[in-house]
Input
Amino acid sequence: MGITNSNKQISTDQIDCNGTLKITLALSAAPDIASNPTDIVLILDRSGSMTGTPLTNMKAGADTFIDIIDEATDGSQDGIIGSGSRIGIVSFADTASADTQLITSVAALKSAVNGLSAGGSTNHADAFAKAVQLFDPSSSNARVIVMFTDGKTTSGLPPAPIAAAARASGIIIYCIGLIGDDGIDIDVLNDWATDPDASHVAVTPDDADLEDLFADLAANISKPGATNIVINETINPDFRITNVIPPTKGTAMTISNTTLQWKIQELGVSGNEGASLEFYVTHVGQSTGTKAVNASIIYTDTEGNAVTFPDPSVSVDCGIVTTPESCPVPVELTVEGCQDSLVADLGSVYLESPGRIVQLDVTVKNVCPHKRTALAVILTEVDPYGEEHQRGLKTLTIPAHNSKGCRDILVKCIKFILPEDLNVSVPDPKGLCSVRNLKVRVFAHNIDTDFRCCEGIITL
Output
């Protein structure tokens, strides 16, 4: 069968700057179907939520699956599943039905698939039960169930015990999930499928992907087990590999802080087998946004299996970052051999971030004792057309004084920052040599007062 599934998962879809996430790579493989006859039951969801393009694309995917197995078993698409392998069709909605037994006729299988219509609720338990009933306990064929569904269980018994019993009897279960109108619980699919979950479950939000998912699974089922596997994983430069957990099979090592290599001598040569690798990466970039975790991932093996892995992305939140000045472009110089000195023209350099600081003093007149004063200063800049542009607001409290009478209070060093890129005073500002036309407004009032509103009560 070759590589029957490949997957890549990340532990979270959002981290902060300098945050860490876990990445899981997974593979499963099984022996060649031509020399290891296999009975396969396709379980197809025909509930009401499959109406329209989901049902059409599922049928196309199932037909493609059947064609690939047909060719893999005897070397040609001759309309007969060969080499002792067979396929059966089970479909389900409120209840499940065995639309075919385990048979070898491609035409009969496709007729059963293309005759399906959508309607009703979702009974996964009955679907698993009907599929298990198709297998012959006395047969030496390998047994595989491919469950396709687009939603959660809405009728019937809990399906998990039936799926668990099937796995315990030696049946390999794969799950293909379409995120339909009522959603899908990926944890449930993982529970139903053969371990490791990551290599036996594939989920898509787009029904247009269904044919590819069915095709990939069939192509992998039909190839031999894989030997001399090498996976070279290079992560995005925004991340660094911080820890690699020993894989469940094979060996893994870091080549650099962004590259690791996973080697497996053989996988799935004598039976269905899975392997997984976990490692941790930490974000080291400076920018916010959605970041692809991978820069590249390359798979090779002796059998030439074509393997692709998902390309997950994580949302990185670095808060609000402002970089007002970019790094200058360097001037490259070369000092020749035996040359004691070098004279070079480095060109011009401009003063970065020119601007002004306006510092204001104001005297508040006749401030009475024992009363705090609130002060507000508003600064605007006037353009050549007389329009004012806001440049800042300062509010502060002047503490109360204890003098015997009212007195003037000097408030010093009220500062405003005026970057030159805000200059509207002149049409073509030239750094610190330009005029800035400003207006200042000052407001003040007492905070403390002995006035009380309508607190007296008059009784007649």
Observations:
- The chain is about 15% helix and 40% strand.
